[in-house]
Task: structure prediction
Amino acid sequence: MNKNIAVIRGDGIGPEIVAQALLVLNRVAELYGHSFHYTDVDMGGCAIDKWGNPLPEEMLQKCISSDSVLLGAVGGNKWNNFPSHMRPEKGLLRLRAGMGVYSNNRPAKIWPQLASASPLKASIVEKGIDFIIVRELIGGIYFGEHKTEEIDGQPTAIDILTYNEAEIERIGRIGFETAQKRNKQLCSVEKSNVLDSSRLWKSVMHRLATEYPDVTLTDMLVDNCAMQIVKNPSQFDVIVTENMFGDILSDEASMITGSIGMIPSSSLGSSSCGLYEPIHGSAPDIAGKDIANPIGTILSAAMMLRFSFDMPQEADCIENAVSKLLDAGYRTADIMPSDPSESQNCKQIGCSECGKFICDYLKKL
Ligand code: IPM
Ligand code: MG
Result:
């Protein structure tokens, strides 16, 4: 198959980790007889520097007209004090909204080889951690009006959180459908004891539940959910939640699996053109040192093959290669055990070695 992939290397560690994911994609293409064509797209801080705009319109169009988009990470200290429309994150939000990718899927799954990297007690990890956060991605407070003005003689900041029924329903359906393909347990997370948007959220979820009788729907307040993720993560199968709650809970969920550097994500809307990105940031403190973990990006490329290109074997092939790398004891710095009794069985590797070794482990299934 021929596929056109828009590639956003971005800022910080973005270019390093994306380079490794492209090596892996090229090797998969060779093994399975595909051809992947890449178009570079500028977005984030590098686009501000080059074009004075975090996502110029023609860059967005390149993404929309591709078969899917692979993104590293954007942002960095250099642009922190820029006005809000000139921040790298603004480019990312415009990209998500412009592509219409309302459904962000973030798996929290522990790799057995990394069980000891979890900060949770072994007795909790042993019960299993394998759930998905379905995060609404193009609505809510991220996309409401933001302004700071003088009210009652002092600067006052206003951020508006809006959800309409249709926006809740479309992400709710993704939650139910995701649960149907797994263990049929859906937990809807909100703050309905305080927020109107959450009360509407909850009522829509319960209306939808009647259409998915095979799925068990539960409700959980977001503060309780934050607690339950560390206390008893094995209770979760699929969590569906709004944009900002999903942002926060997915960082928490990633950490209990060992490292945020391992977690991929997919974002889809009504077409098969998706946006695939690791959930971590641009980590400017380690950029250019060849020590970042590229696995989150490599697994995001695997998700692209699975969900947008209908290539499940090719996706399995990448996931197997990552598993073999971990079996062999190779670890980037973020997942290197600190306990000497364990680290003696592991070997610390850099970002490019990690990509190269994963390529070597790729075998046609
Ligand atoms: C994420 C990131 C982004 C978000 C930032 C960079 C705008 O934290 O993808 O989780 O908040 O969505
Ligand atoms: Mg985040």
